[in-house]
Input
Amino acid sequence: MLSTDLRNNVLVVRVAEKRIDASKAPAFKDEMTKCIDSGQNQIVLDLSSVDFIDSSGLGALVSCLKRLGPRGAWRLRARRGPSADCLR
Output
């Protein structure tokens, strides 16, 4: 579901799925939690391949952002459209 690349102490996380919905949100949250718990606190989340995010997906995103907390920074990269608009 996710691929990662470390660039200048910033972890770039690409979501390979077209949808983050109720069936995918738990795996997304688990993989992101592992990244955060491994000590990565500067993250770019690339959602450019994602076409749809439902409330479960949004909940997973918020949970990960809360887990990162004030110790880190999070940037989103998303294509234009309804999914990106709700994240702005």
Observations:
- The mean pLDDT is 89.
- The chain is about 40% helix and 30% strand.
- The first helix runs from residue 25 to 37.
